[in-house]
């Protein structure tokens, strides 16, 4: 392409990503989001049939990441080019039409982000979406609905949800949940669909404006609570509620 034509094409692309007025700036004078848009314009200059993004959110803090992701994907959609992104950031999945989780070099599960987050089929996929393994037990009985079961852990019976339909009565299982789905129990009755457990706190450490508590109840439940609640009265024993639908069972 002649030099004049290349310059015109470059300015057109910068116009499309909203950076035409910054064309004379040096890279060091651009923000993180502006650099991402320049990278997008440079990639689109080749007229690709598909755009590959390798860890597009790496080295970005959370507020910047969310802003840049929304901006970048809005620009990508304007170009109308399909995108294949590789990332260790589960937040990126929320922007994807379809997600494939790789484990040990093979696709462990694929589908929509919503489907994978609600029912990861094994502990590896679950960890990617924030689940932690909290214990092991045995299925005592299947529930009335197709994907529920009663599991026994150290003689305690808990209601849980099957991650895969092949699990049956007597199956040995792993239990998983997300810390954000365990909450301090209130003073009143147990909410419908929840079960109440007595948590013996073993460890406590800060995570930003929250405390992360780990304890046994009899499963090893994680819990995130605001700093003010924990400062108000550190206790060794806490009553916690967890929704039965948020306690997942994976094959052992």
Automatic annotation (TrEMBL):
InterPro entries to which the protein is assigned, alphabetical: ABC_SmlMolc_Importer, ABC_transporter-like_ATP-bd, ABC_transporter-like_CS, P-loop_NTPase
Superkingdom: Bacteria
Keyword terms, alphabetized: ATP-binding, Nucleotide-binding, Transport
Signal peptide start and end residues: none
PROSITE patterns: ABC_TRANSPORTER_1 (PS00211)
Gene3D superfamilies: P-loop containing nucleotide triphosphate hydrolases
Ranges for domain ABC transporter: 7-58
GO MF, any single term: ATP hydrolysis activity
PANTHER family: AMINO ACID ABC TRANSPORTER, ATP-BINDING PROTEIN-RELATED (PTHR42781:SF9), SPERMIDINE/PUTRESCINE IMPORT ATP-BINDING PROTEIN POTA (PTHR42781)
Protein name (Swiss-Prot/TrEMBL): PotA
Gene behind this protein: potA
